[in-house]
Amino acid sequence: MSQKEFKARIRKAIANENLQIALDNNARRRKEARVSIFAQMPDHEERRQRAHAIKADIVARLDDHLARFIEKVSANGITVHRAGDAEEAVGIFLQIAAGVEKKEGKPLLVAKSKSMVSEEVNLNHALEKHGMQAVETDLGEYIVQLRGEHPSHIITPAVHLRRNDVGKLFEEKLGLPYTEDIPTLTNTARKVLRNVFLQADIGFSGVNFGVVETGTLCMVTNEGNGRMVTTLPKVHIAMMGIERLVPSMEDLALFLSLLPRSATGQKLSVYTSLINAPLPGQQRHLILLDNGRKTLRNSPLAESLYCIRCGACLNACPVFRELSGHAYGSIYPGPIGSVISCGLIDPELATLAQASSLCGACREACPIDIDLPGLLSRIRAGGVPGEEYLKKEGRGLPGVVKLGLSGFRLAAANASLFGFFQTLGGLATHILSPRRSYMPIPAFTGWGFSKDFPRLAVKPFRAKWKDIHQEVEDKPAAGNRQEEAVVKPAAGSLSQVEQFTREATTLGVKVYPVSETNVRREIARLLEEKGVDRILGDETGADYVTGIPVVREPDPGIHWGITGAAGAIAETGSLLLTSGEGETLTASLLPEMHIAVLKASQIFPTVESAMALPGLKNACSVIATGPSRTADIEMALTIGVHGPGEVHVFLIDE
Description:
Blueprint: H1 3-15, H2 17-38, H3 44-60, H4 62-75, E1 79-83, H5 86-98, E2 109-112, H6 116-120, H7 123-129, E3 133-136, H8 139-146, H9 163-174, H10 182-199, E4 202-205, E5 209-211, E6 216-221, H11 225-231, E7 235-241, E8 245-246, H12 249-264, E9 271-275, E10 283-289, H13 293-297, H14 312-316, H15 320-323, H16 334-344, H17 361-365, H18 372-380, H19 399-412, H20 415-432, E11 438-439, E12 453-454, H21 461-474, H22 496-506, E13 510-514, H23 519-530, E14 535-537, H24 539-542, E15 550-551, E16 560-564, E17 567-569, E18 574-578, E19 593-599, E20 603-604, H25 607-610, E21 620-624, E22 629-630, E23 638-639, E24 646-652
Parallel strand pairs: 1-10, 2-3, 2-4, 4-7, 5-8, 7-10, 13-24, 14-15, 14-16, 16-19, 17-20, 19-24
Antiparallel strand pairs: 5-6, 6-9, 9-21, 11-12, 17-18, 18-21, 22-23
């Protein structure tokens, strides 16, 4: 994309008042949520550095880690495919699909969970070209698919839209009477997409993390669509960038403590799916995609491969906040997109690196402490991988700006010269703008299109620093006080049962303390009160039901489901659900209301400790944290999307 085209996109975005309101609301709420949730994690910085070191090792020894991961995944019964580029990845998908029996007279139906890597290879377009029907099932992705657009944000695909835009879209495409009521819009999408899940021939998903030591595929979602596409169809295809690895389940717990907090301000996303093997009667395939990642690894931009796609840098970036993702003209927007796009999408997208103030807000927000300002600076200096003709300093910058930067570099190399020019510049700007603290800048520089340039200080920083330093030395000494020790708050006295109950209740889960002797009676009382005449359940859940039939096969007409729980996590209020003997994941997924029976002795204190649960090594497991939810329309929280909107936990105190 040329600099001229990019500037035209920028002007169009800034002039769109509706877009500016939507972006401001998203940035403010995302930032507030992230700051609030990390304030509750005193060792946040330590975790960032641990995560950074882990990803550095993964990228440095990528071939070794990848070989071990493939060996484990294959041993688990998942078929692994390697794709060098987008064309090869699409070809592998088509080859798998060719062996899937489709319903007579209907195109092959693919139910897709949100996946940026599928956008990267333009999968939907390829499938439609070959006569298949690919349906996005994430609410935000579904909205932008109906509009014929790409996602505008890594986490919130429809961030550029407001409720009236979605209301008009659903009126036109789905025949819904015009409404701006977000729960109504969400419920409409749920009804339409429910049939897609039940009828899909193939389920498709991305992968957030691949665990090397166990061959586990981890996927993090909030709405429940990710669980649907990996559980219900007879064929599941996952696509994953080769860099998305972590060494162990313990390391996975670390990254799970950072990803949802950075992305959406949650301690854990609603559904953390851990996939180890196919379910009975199911095929699973994993497509491992390179598509320029190894080239990036061997370039000055290798650190960009540490990214876990949380989107925090987009929310923090003052430039993205003005533009939205579509202005970038790339699948990956914002600070991280401005780095990786030239390596994974198109070398010409190196011009996106100019869309940054290098203020450092992106690095401050990054949960992996990626030096994004440094990477952007390297691209500006010509460090674009794989394209020698682009390795030219200042590509895309106007000539006058290049000249100015060259002069600045010469002046900055000498402290006295720099101080002289700063004084000279300060005097000049004060003369040009005598009554304002800001001065107008000519439009040809590109800077002054939307903002004024601050006047330079007349007195150089070094001169000011000498004055301050002298003032401090002149003050009388305050004595040799030792630095005050930082006192961490004492650990709470809550028991694990109390902590689990508190956290789960905060998420909207209803917890009923019961005993082993009265649990069946209390469940029967709830079902009678709700008028339930049949319930979807597995063998464990069925043992706690009396008086009404328990159905084992998925039935969209059943509104209640009951399961046991293999365990729970106190610090997040999460349930551990597994696909072991006599257990099924559909009873906790398909119905609108889910009842789980949990024993107090099965509660783990932390996510890290819960990773030792043997049941998490079953074919498929889920860490369920509250009812399903979304905030894809105007950041308005809506409970109950594709998964249950109500969760009832009967907690047996033994």
